[in-house]
Write a structure and sequence with these properties.
Helix content: 25-40%
Number of strands: 8
Distance between the termini: 21 Å
Order of helices and strands: EHEHEHEHEEEEH
Shape: globular
Largest sheet: 6 strands, parallel
Structural class: alpha/beta
């Protein structure tokens, strides 16, 4: 009997020019993939040109917007769990990630999520903000998070050079995401 591996989306939650999120997400993806315990995939929010929820669009942009929304919804529905990689902006997640999450609900229900953050305090306040949002979307978030400091894990706040000790939290967070994702899969 072959057991199908869980599918975990690692979401790059920043679309900002010059973002550090891509380097952080690539580190997380490479770290997770080496464990060979799930099917991990990077999902770059910048690849989905989502309009602001409720925004009135000209007719010529409507089809493109509808396609982007459907593509985002389908991609997120395809996973058993998530790892959200997000910077902290003004004590919260960025507006693009919040907007993208606002397009989802049943796609995320009864799934699990972990957090990887970066910022002056490692993105911890963005994680707390995510916990509130995901609670409303019926996503079980795990306790352990990976937090990178702009002062000590980045050279000149732009070149990502994570300290080795983050591996412990990354392993614990991944273990928790997989355990919860597997358990919640049984009720979907």
């Amino acid at each position: 009997m072959t057991v199908e591996k869980l599918k975990i989306g690692i979401v790059i939650g920043s679309v900002r020019q010059g973002r550090n999120a891509e380097a952080v997400a690539n580190w997380m993806y490479n770290f997770a993939a080496k464990r060979n315990d799930a099917e991990y995939e990077l999902v770059d929010l910048a690849n989905y040109k989502l309009p602001f929820l409720g925004e009135e669009l000209p007719a010529e942009r409507q089809e493109e917007a509808n396609n982007a929304i459907k593509s985002w919804s389908d991609k997120m529905a395809s996973y058993d769990g998530y790892i959200f990689v997000t910077p902290e902006y003004n004590h919260a997640i960025g507006g693009a990630l919040k907007n993208a999450l606002d397009y989802l609900n049943p796609e995320l229900n009864n799934k699990a999520a972990g957090f990887v953050g970066y910022g002056s305090l490692g993105g911890t306040r963005a994680h707390e903000n995510m916990r509130l949002i995901l609670g409303e979307l019926q996503v079980a978030d795990v306790r352990t998070a990976v937090t990178f400091s702009l002062m000590s894990d980045f050279e000149n706040m732009s070149v990502f050079k994570p300290a080795d000790y983050h591996a412990g939290n990354a392993n614990t967070m991944l273990d928790q995401v997989l355990a919860w994702s597997g358990a919640l899969k049984t009720i979907r």
